[in-house]
Amino acid sequence: EAVDRSIPYEKTLQLYDSSIRSKGDAQTLAEYELAHSKQGSDALDYTVVGHSANGLVFATDTIAHVEDQVAGVNGPFYVTARTFTRSTQTGPLTQLKLVPPNSIVLKEAAA
Fold this sequence. Notes:
Order of helices and strands: HEEEEEE
Number of strands: 6
Largest sheet: 4 strands, antiparallel
Oligomer: single chain
Number of helices: 1
Distance between the termini: 23 Å
Strand content: 35-45%
Helix content: 10-25%
């Protein structure tokens, strides 16, 4: 059982996986599925000027601190994708896709 306390209602999802052999395996799968489902709903998309911040080039598989007063976002986010562009009209831009760090759960490969 995995519970997301940030959602004000309860929704049950039943999963079947023939590789589950223990309660621990079932718990791991439940936590993975919950985190995976939150990735899309909590994802942030930004386009920022430049290809770096504070001297560091934007990179995937890193944590970035986001402060967005308009959207009310302030905290660490995991960078899942980034695209660099450059044009004569805009100069260098970077498109970033970010998710909350707790929405990333690594799942062991089946043996």
